[in-house]
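Sanity check

After download, print the first record. It should look like this:
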Amino acid sequence: MAEFNINILGCGSALPTTRHLATSQIVDLRDKLYMIDCGEGTQIQMRNMRIRFGRLNHIFISHLHGDHCFGLPGLISTLGMLGRNGELVIHGPKEVETFMRPVMDLFCRGLEFEVRFNPINTYEHSLVMEDRSLSVYSIPLKHRIPTCGYLFEEKQKEPHIIREMTDFYQVPVRWMQALKQGKDYITSEGEIIPNSRLTRPATPPKRYAFCSDTAYCPSIIPIIEGVDLLYHEATFAECDLPRAKETFHSTARQAAEIARAAHVGKLLIGHYSARYEDVTPLLQEAKAIFPQTMLANERMVLSL
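Expected structure tokens:
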């Protein structure tokens, strides 16, 4: 079972190429799947990577540019043909529902499951979705149209029971949940056994931030401070900075500067412009600022 994996389905930008597909990722948290963006080719990549459609219940759309959402109609139609009956929630700017409702009325009639749209204020950092496993927050970004990134925060797990110690003190099974909640064990003779002797802390919760599309935006730094992994767009090289400013995108150097300032664990760059047949210079540019940088590639799976 995947503890916390990031699956890269597509990491190109708006113009399709044979090298990269349009943006889409799947966060796999203990076999619960959360999709980020849904460009063309997304469902084909899910097949290629053997990702199970039925485990997907939430889709997070960053903004309404085609390379981030043109795969949605096809994916929803496929889910209907697969016999899905559970609710599908699509989170994103309010314009996502404006785009999808007429398309669904034409091509997705008679679905046996509900598609619910959760509109997000892209100008606020706020809680978007929460379940037993994680919380998802919006990250206001700077682009040509309303756009937000997403912060995935795993919830703190319960402490681990040290079986050798609970056996030694003959702790009854009925006490186990109390131990996980941090309580000390009291023996039948009234002796108090400290919780720290019977449990050890769980692995610290992981955090993943997705920030694309966006111009250089230092205001996101407090939101993503210390995340284990940051995905930040690096559409252009620094030599094409004027084009980056014109289109409200970032350079690889700017992505690395954000990562360094936010003290993140690792940086993953993507959303490459079609003008670059070789994106190695983007990696070199970013690593000169932030050495813990990686290039995103289709079918890549990263474990936090």
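If your output differs, re-run the checksum step. Summary of this record's structure: The mean pLDDT is 94.
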